[in-house]
């Protein structure tokens, strides 16, 4: 049976080193992190695990940063990749960023306008009510009558 | 030269004035007066130590706060404008552009004029307008910013004096100037609203309604929420005057929502009174009393006991119209206690005491004339704090 190479050897190495420094056994670390022994083994093996599990283990070991292996050398890794693919990825990333930023910007603008006492909806409602009152036949009639007895 | 203690006190006063807040009811006038009463030389010496006392920004802050206080507390606005004149006097030509200094002095006098108009001291207001005009005339380049505003103040004086035709003519001309010469649509719409209000005072309701409607369109375009709120309130006043109370309440409610957005508690409370009175006119007494009660509490919280007392009288009125005589007596009794603790003007207390006495004598069956008599007195007392209350001759007999 062939031994599978770890997918994230740098992460595994960093975490093992931290575990050694802390002097935690696997059982203790799993308990502290609140993950199963099986999941912990996966993490320490450098397998693909969820970020949630990884974060728990990091928190238990008080590790703030991890090396991400080849991801730290993106430029080297992208050499030879078709420009079309790179552009498509770039566009996708840009869109993702915009999608996440747009609601935030919108919220900021709304907060600002409310802080400055502006509410376009309320202003529009008030404007509409004034227009309605001005063109209301009852108003016109009453105003006309009142005009006649002006001081 | 003032002592260190005095200087600290003056610094507190200035900080307070810059924030537009009061340390307490009593302290506000004291500290500001203290600062104003410093001899000219002493003020200049203080300005040497404290850059804020010779800063254009301070002049702007003080003017803005004076403007904000105009409708709520015109006497305090006057005090702030006087302090502002002192600060503007202390501006130095080496530190600020000469034309800016002259303009700042003009602005300070303009705000003094506005406060004097609110108080009803028209002759002093005319003098203040003339002084401001002299400053603006000295700096031709920026004269444009101040002179039309002064024209509006002149129109306001004429309006308050009852010379509506001339007031309207000046305001109309100024509005056109704002649009054609200065291309300032924001001020244009304010001037137009002013014209519409004069038309309302003149009883030209149809014209006033048209003018308010047009101004509202521009205010919305400009996203000028404050002006739009005032237009809605004025539209409400117009509808009230022509007897369309339901429509008026709708306008007041919209205006109130906008004032809530703008964080203007005094205007919110004012809208509530008008809604309450509108409800009384429509026979919705219970709802009216609730609205008026809320308004009364808000005015008490805002430190405006005379207005709160006027609202209480509106409540009495509503109860009389609803024939709820049993409610009148406890309300009158409660009013005395509430207003004594709120430091209501002594003469106003006497007026309410008189009403309370009548209410207990007649088992709450007050006459609407009695309430109106006291209400009129409180209204006059706002303009003339030296008035004395005298019970009407018929009742005394």
Structure description:
The complex is a heterodimer of chains A (151) and B (397). Chain A is 72% helix and 0% strand. Chain A contains eight helices and no strands. Mean pLDDT of chain A is 77; it is low at 72-77. Chain B has 397 residues and is mainly α. Helix content of chain B is 80%, strand content 0%. Chain B is built from 20 helices and no strands. The chains are: A mainly alpha (151), B mainly alpha (397).
Low-confidence stretches of chain B: none
Number of helices of chain B: 20
Into which percentage range does the β-strand content of chain B fall? under 5%
Give me the count of strands of chain A: 0
Q: What structural category characterises the helix and strand content of chain B?
A: mainly alpha
How many separate domains of chain A?
3
Spatial extent as radius of gyration of chain B: 23 Å
How many angstroms separate the termini of chain A? 107 Å
Outline type of chain A:
elongated
Intertermini distance of chain B:
60 Å
List keywords for this structure.
heterodimer, A: 151 residues, mainly alpha, 434 Repressor (Amino-terminal Domain), 3 domains, 8 helices, 0% strand, B: 397 residues, Serine Threonine Protein Phosphatase 5, Tetratricopeptide repeat, 20 helices, 80% helix
State the gist of this model.
Chain A has 151 residues and is mostly helical. Helices cover 72% and strands 0% of the residues of chain A.
């Amino acid at each position: 049976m062939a031994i599978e190479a770890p997918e994230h050897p740098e992460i595994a190495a960093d975490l093992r080193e931290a575990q050694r420094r802390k002097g935690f056994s696997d059982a203790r670390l799993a308990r502290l992190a609140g993950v199963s022994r099986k999941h912990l083994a996966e993490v320490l093996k450098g397998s693909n695990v969820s970020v949630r599990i990884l974060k728990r283990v990091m928190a238990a070991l008080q590790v703030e940063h991890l090396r991400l292996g080849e991801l730290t050398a993106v430029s080297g890794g992208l050499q030879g990749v078709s420009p079309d693919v790179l552009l498509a990825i770039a566009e996708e990333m840009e869109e993702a960023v915009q999608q996440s930023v747009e609601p935030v910007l919108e919220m900021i603008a709304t907060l600002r306008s409310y802080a400055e006492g502006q509410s376009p909806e309320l202003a529009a409602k008030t404007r509409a009510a004034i227009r309605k009152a001005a063109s209301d036949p009852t108003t016109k009639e009453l105003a006309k009558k009142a005009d006649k007895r002006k001081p | 030269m003032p002592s260190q203690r005095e200087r600290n006190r003056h610094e507190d006063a200035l900080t307070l004035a810059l924030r537009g807040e009061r340390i307490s009811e009593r302290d506000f006038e004291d500290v500001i007066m203290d600062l104003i009463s410093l001899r000219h030389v002493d003020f200049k010496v203080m300005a040497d130590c404290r850059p804020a006392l010779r800063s254009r920004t301070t002049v702007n802050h003080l003017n803005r706060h004076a403007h904000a206080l105009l409708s709520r507390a015109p006497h305090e606005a006057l005090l702030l404008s006087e302090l502002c004149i002192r600060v503007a006097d202390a501006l130095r030509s080496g530190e600020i552009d000469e034309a800016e200094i002259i303009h700042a002095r003009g602005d300070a006098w303009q705000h003094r004029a506005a406060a004097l108009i609110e108080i009803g001291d028209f002759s002093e207001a005319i003098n203040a307008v003339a002084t401001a005009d002299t400053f603006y005339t000295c700096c031709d380049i920026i004269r444009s910013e101040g002179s039309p505003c002064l024209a509006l103040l002149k129109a306001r004086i004429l309006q308050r004096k009852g010379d509506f035709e001339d007031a309207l003519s000046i305001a109309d001309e100024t509005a056109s100037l704002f649009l054609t010469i200065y291309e300032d649509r924001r001020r244009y719409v304010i001037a137009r609203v002013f014209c519409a209000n004069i038309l309302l005072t003149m009883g030209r309701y149809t014209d006033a309604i048209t003018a308010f409607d047009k101004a509202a369109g521009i205010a919305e375009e400009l996203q000028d929420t404050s002006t739009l709120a005032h237009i809605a309130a004025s539209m409400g006043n117009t509808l009230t005057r022509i007897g369309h109370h339901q429509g008026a309440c709708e306008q007041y409610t919209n205006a109130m929502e906008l004032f809530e957005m703008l964080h203007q508690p005094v205007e919110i409370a004012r809208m509530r009174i008008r809604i309450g009175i509108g409800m009384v006119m429509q026979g919705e007494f219970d709802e009216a009393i609730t609205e008026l009660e809320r308004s009364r509490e808000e005015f008490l919280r805002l430190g405006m006991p005379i207005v709160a007392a006027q609202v209480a009288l509106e409540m009495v009125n509503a109860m009389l119209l609803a024939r709820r005589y049993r409610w009148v007596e406890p309300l009158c009794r409660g009013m005395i206690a509430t207003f004594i603790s709120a430091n209501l003007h002594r003469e106003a207390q006497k007026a309410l005491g008189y009403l309370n006495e009548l209410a207990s004598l007649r088992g709450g069956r007050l006459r609407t004339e009695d309430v109106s008599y006291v209400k009129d007195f409180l209204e006059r007392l706002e303009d003339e704090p030296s008035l004395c209350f005298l019970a009407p001759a018929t009742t005394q007999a």
